[in-house]
Structure formats: structure tokens, C-alpha cells
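Final report, closing paragraph on structural work. Over the funding period we assembled a curated collection of sequence-structure pairs, and we close with a single example.
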Amino acid sequence: MLGRWNSDTKIQVAVKLLNELVDSLRNKPNVEIALRLYGHQSHVPPQDCKDTKLEIPFGGLNHDRIKNRLIDLQPRGTTPIAYSLGQAAGDFPTCGNCRNIIILITDGKEECDGDPCAISKALQEKGVILKPFIIGIGLDNSVKYSLECVGNFYDATTEETFRDILTVVISQALNPTTAQVNLLDTYKKPTETNVPFTLYDMQTGRMVYNFIHTFNHAGNPDTLHLDHLIKYRLKVHSIPPVEKDGIEIIPGKHNVIAVDAPQGYLFLNVKNRNEYGTLKCIVRKSGSMETMHIQDFGATEKYLTGKYDIEILSLPRIIQKDVKISQSATTTVEIEQPGLVNLQFGGVGYGSIFQLKGKDVEFVCNLNENIMQQAIVLQPGTYKVVFRFRNTKETVLSKDRTFTVRSGESVIVNLRN
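Its predicted structure, as stored:
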């Protein structure tokens, strides 16, 4: 930093421009600054790879203290960039909603065998800091390449360039950038809305923003103010969810984030009256056995367009495959009104109900072995009940009855005799 650079030495140019920067931040609300220096306490040789110090801690009224400390600053030692970055992580006060930003200024590469890239990545992954700003002063190309992985790298080739870069960095550090999320329908129009979505920091995996998508008063996707220092992963909580990775926000512009999320509706209904009370349905992607959603009968739910398999948790269960959901349309799935069977046993025992399927039987449910009568809601059809009293020790004494259930009607099945 003692080398000649444009109108003065690098250190004097840096101090002059940093003073201008500190003055520009005096009246910025909710902004606190601190000053950490490195390579300024110990002479070389010997090399002191821990030569770094927080000279002025964070505070709202420390601008003059920082400027006074810069007056007599003299570079003496080496360049422990990695160690200084690691130490700077502890400089920030505890704060739940702060943006911790580091601006690192250097005229050389790491000189202490540290790995600034690894340190920076680790601090970002822990959520300690956002991606650092690195300003290089008069660096050769090999040094530039080694610092690009540390953060947002800027190459100051002249004093005027350095001033411009400082202005850009502060603007980016302090000012959020606007964006909108377009949820596209089948026709690639941003007509979908009222869906929750989450933006994650791809570096750390942490949730950064949670919103419910909204149209503004002009009928367009609402404008968001996002931190452009973060690369995002978007997850739209549609059914099923839609994700988009690697979203970079361009500072100073209105960014449009578009994702395909065409949706339609599924309505589940029981004809006439529903004796089930609460009847539910498992919804799966067509051809998959993984449960995607559970929907109540009598309710309407939004799904991405496509085909789904549904399993209605009636007795017996009803499975419908390849139910099609179309853009902005409502698909209705309706089942018959069930009937009621009243089973009278005259004692406790073991039993099951089967539905007759031609010459075969299909299991429906087991009976409660601790009660002497039981009422069960069943879909219309022909059934067989098989029952044996608990104290009967002979298999041949099992009883069976065939009965028919009709929509909206009840039937009594007597197994006493």
C-alpha cells in the first residue's frame, strides 16, 4: 500500500476516499459501521499472520473516530486476508434482522497460506455475513483471479475508478432491488396468484423470505424488494410444489422471476347427503404411490395441471386413475351417497366385511371385537359379513350373512343366531 498510485501512494488515496465514504454514511438511517485493519501493527520481517485488529467497533456515531484513526494509518506488515475475514465475523453485534456486510480493500494477495475463499464460504453458509465486497487496488491478473471466489470482486485500476466502485458498493449494500414473481399459466401468461412461496439463500439453505403471491391494484404481480447480494432458490408451494434454482437479482433493475405454475381445481362431492361426516381423499401424481395431498370431500383444492390418481377413503375405498386437471377449470369427482348397515352380534367376537366381486370377495374392513353391535357406512353394493363368537373354539361355527347396501338406506344384519 506504500507504492505510488496515480496522484499519491495507494494508502493515501484509499484513506482519502474512505473518508469521503464515511462522511456519506453519516445520515443514513439504521446503518452502523466499523473499521478493522490488517498488516498495520507488526513490521516485516518477521511475518505476523495474526496482525489484524478491530480498531473502531460498530456504532451509530463513530464516523469521526474512524476518520481520526485513518489519519496516521501506516502499512507495515503482511496480508493475512483469510485470518482477518475470520476475525471480522465476530465484529458484528447480535441482531436478528441485520444485513452484515464486509468491504475488504487490498493491494495484494493472501500472504499467510490461508484460504480466503473457504473462510468466506463458511461464513456465508453460517449466515454470519452476506457475500463480501472485495476491492482490489492496482492488482495484477493472477491476484485478481485468486480473489474473485471470495466475494463480489471489483478491480480499481485508477483513483477515479476506486471512487466510482465505492459508490456502487455502498449503493448495492444499502439499497434493496425490486423484483416480481410471475406464476405462468399454460399459455405462459402471469395469471396465477394467491399461492405461498419461499425464497431461500442457495449458499446457506436458509429461508430468507416467505410470501403469499399477490396481484397489485393494477392487476400485475406485486413488486418485492429483495436483497440482490443473495443467489436464490424459489419454491412455489403449489400442489405439487414448483422450484427454480440459481436466481440472481441484478442490482438497480426491476427483475422478473418467471416460473411455470399452471393450475386448475378439483372438487370432491358425495351425491345428496354425506353420512360419512368427514370423508377424505388421497391425491397422488399419476402412476405414483407417494401421497401428495389429502383433500376433504365438499372442498375445492388447486393443483398444477396434469393427471392425478385419487384414492377415496370410503368403505370400500374407491380408486380413480388419471383424473385430469385443466387450466383454470374445475374437475368434479362425485361418488354415490352411501348406505348404513347395522350389525347385531348378540355377543363379542371376531369378524370382517367383504364386498362381493363376481365369484370373488374383496376385503373391506374388520369389525370391532369388543362390542355386540356396530353401525358401518358403506358404499352401495353387495357384501358378506363373516363372524365368530369369541368363546367359540370351533372354526366351523363361524357365521356369514350376505346383504345389500343401497344409497341413502339402512339395513339390519342379525348374527345372533
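The first strand starts at residue 4 and ends at 5. DSSP finds six helices and 28 strands in the chain. We thank the funder for supporting this effort.
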